[in-house]
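Support request, please re-run this one:
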Amino acid sequence: MDAPTAVLVAVSLVWLGMVLAISFLEAPLKFRAPNVTPQIGLGIGRLVFRALNAAEVLFAVVALVALVLFPPTGRIITSVLVAVGTLLVQLVAVRPRLSRRSDAVLAGRDAPRSRAHHAYIALEVAKVAALVLTGTWLLSA
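Re-run finished. Output below.
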C-alpha cells in the first residue's frame, strides 16, 4: 500500500471510529447517567460535538487533499465526497437548528423536540456508511 492510500485509510477509519463512539455511544448514554439533567447533558454534548466536528473538518480536508494529489478509483472518490458532503450539510444546515434548541433549553425555556435531531442522526448513518465503504474499498484495492 502506498503512503497516500495509507493516509486515506487511516483518516477514514479513525473518522469512522470517532463518529461511532461519540454519536452512537456517548451522545445517547450521557442522558442515562445518574444526576445528568437535560441542561448538563446538552452542555456536555455541545462541547463534545464541537470537538468532534473540528476533528471531522480536519479529516475531511486531509481526505480531500489526498484525493486531489493522488486520485483513487471513482467509487472511493464518491464515498469520500459523500462523507464530506454529509458533514457539510450537518454543519451548515442542521447544527444551527440544534444550537437554537439547545440555547433555549440551556436558558431554562421549554423547547419542543426538534426534527433536526432526526435529520442529524440520518446524516450520521449516511456518513458512517460512506466511511465504511471508503475504508473497505481502500483496504481491498
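The radius of gyration is 17 Å. The CA atoms of residues 34 and 103 lie 23 Å apart.
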